[in-house]
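P.,

For your records, the input lines for the assembly:
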Amino acid sequence: MSKKIKKITIFSGINKFGKKENFNKIEIKSGETIAVVGPTGAGKSQFLYDLERLAQADTKSKRKILLNDKIPDKEWKIDPKKKLIASLAQSMNFLTDLPVEDFLKLHIQARGKVANQNLIKEVIDEANQITGEPINLEMNLLDLSGGQSRALMISDLANISISPIILIDEIENAGIKKEQAIKILVEEGKIVLIATHDPSLALNTDKRIVINNGGVVKIIKTTLKERGIAHYLNWIENSTLEVREEIRQGKRIKDIKLFCEKI
Amino acid sequence: MKEYKVDKLKCAGCGACIPICPHQAIKFDNDKKVIIDKEKCRQCGKCMEVCPFNAIKYE
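C-alpha cells returned:
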C-alpha cells in the first residue's frame, strides 16, 4: 500500500551566499507536477536532493521538509522498503541481464502485488505510449535503447512502484514522448518534481520553481497560455520523434504529419 | 450576440484547445483546423486563453 502523501511543505533555507531564500514555504499537493528550473549549476539537483533526504536543516541549503504538515518519521528516511520517494536520473540504466517480462514479474512480486498478465501488459502498453520504438516482453533489458529504458522505467514507476513522490532529473534528449510520460505518472496520483531545461516539459506543469545561486528566487504558476504553448511544442517534438524512428528503420521520409491526430 | 470563433488562417491545428474545453464543444474540422460547436459552447473563454497562436476571437 502506498503511503498517502497529501502535501509536501518546503520551508526556505539559504542560498550559496548565506542569504535567506525568496519565499517562506512552498506547498505541493498530491497530483501536482512541479518543474525546477534555472541555469546549470544553480542548485536544481540540490533542491531535489533535499527532498530525497527529507532535509531538516541538515543539508547545506538548510531547507526543511514536512510531509502532511508533520516532520517525517525517521524510518522513512532509513528504510528503503518504505520507498516514499523514487528518483529517476538521466544516466540511469538497467544493469540486469533479464528479459523484460521476467524483470517486471520480479519487480511486481517484490512490491507485494500479484504479477498477473494484465498488469504486465499495462506496464508495456503504457511504456509503448511513451517511446516510439516498441518494447516487447521477450526483449532483454540490456538490449533496450535509451528511450526504451526510460519509457519502461517511467511506466514501471507509475504502475508498479508504491512511491507517492517521484523526482526526475532531466528526462530530455532521451527520445521519449515527455508529455505522455508526465500524464501517466500524474494519473496515478503521484507528486512529480522535474529538474529540467526543456521548455515543453517546464511549461507542462502546475508550477515552476526558479532557482539561482543555490536558492529559490521565484515560484511561477503556469498559465493556460503556457500550457497551450507546451502542447504545441510537444506536438512538434512528437512529429520529430516519428521521423527519427522512420530514419532508424531505414525508411525514406516522404512527408511530415503536421496535424495533431492524438489529443 | 458575441461568440467565440476560430480564425482559420491563424489556427495551426495543434488541438491544445480541445482537451481544455469543459463542454467538449471543440473538434477538428475536415480541413484539420478546429471548429467550435455554438450549441455546446458556454462561453467560458478557456480556448481563447490556451491557444498559442491567438487564433480564437470573441466577437
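Two observations worth noting. Helices of chain B lie at 17-20, 46-50. Residues 46-50 of chain B form the longest helix (5 residues).

Regards
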